[in-house]
Design brief:
Helix content: 25-40%
Order of helices and strands: EEEHEEEHEEEHHEHEHEHEHEHEHEHEE
Largest sheet: 8 strands, mixed
Structural class: alpha/beta
Distance between the termini: 33 Å
Radius of gyration: 21 Å
Number of strands: 18
Length: about 375
Amino acid sequence: MATPMNMQAAVLKAAGDLRYETVAVPSALGPQDTLVKVMAAGICGSDIGRVMVTGTYRFPTIPGHEFAGVVEAVGSGVGNVKPGDRVAIAPLLPCMKCDACHRGNYSLCDDYSFLGSRTDGGFAQYVKAPARNLVRFPDSIGFEEAATIESAAIILHGIHKINLRAGDSVAVIGIGALGYFAVRLAKLSGARPVIAVDIDESKLAMAREAGADICINASAADLHQQIRAATGGAGADVVLETAGNNAGRETAIHAARKQGTIVIYGSAHQDVVFKPATFERVLRNELHLVGSWNSYSVPFPGKEWFDLIRMIEAGELSARPLISHVRPLSDAPRIFKEIAERSFGGYSKVIFLPHGTPEPVEH
């Protein structure tokens, strides 16, 4: 069947103005370009602020950077994929010319672009992407699950930065999508115990499904004491902070043992402020604070991506418990508005299906 000239997409016209409309299918593929038929696209936590508050880098833009699909067409020089291949798409478009890129630190590129914020992304029926950004996966992995690989790769990227050893105690602060994968990947790394901390009991239930040994509600008055008790009084060897707020960062510092390591994934959306006693813990306990950004390494788009596909294929990792809603792409404007207004409750990961209009499915 020939590729259509037009497609449906969720198009951001201005901050807070997302519309479902008809646009042209990307054309004029370069020698190393591909056209992908998008089968599933997820909402990342960063998409909420990007779509509803700050906006993208130009308008109009098609948002969405967590997606998977089928290769529809390829440029004349493409050799790593072919039409019909099932692929996850890495959204970073590094320059491949700067010092960071030459060192293989693609996440730190000086002059990058990005699908879904700087150029059109995956909230559409088709997307154009460089062939090097496509990662093939087998038929045994569903498109909805493949669309979550980018989130999981962010966590694995941070774990690769530290010396996480079998038997280490790990505390995960904040159980959203990143926290869910942090619990599961820490468990797969041999950590014990794996402690999950969140204020929402439904998120803690999700952490248990991911393999958390101990779940602690962050609203507990003795939160820090509970974490230390769970680690024999010492504190966690490794803390994975995915909450992205001051309360989460404060908890992470108090959760770490002396000379422990804290990996910080969560972005700051306000001033980062610590009480003097909390800051003193960083100094006096010689804590290691490790920033982790994105999910890319050698070979591009990263060992993380290829490792995760193997884990999913082997049945060691599943995103199914994380996916709470599967919706047609036409619902995107309404769902983004409701999430921003906090009236879209009980969700963890929302997946859009750009082709067809299925009945709403709850998982």
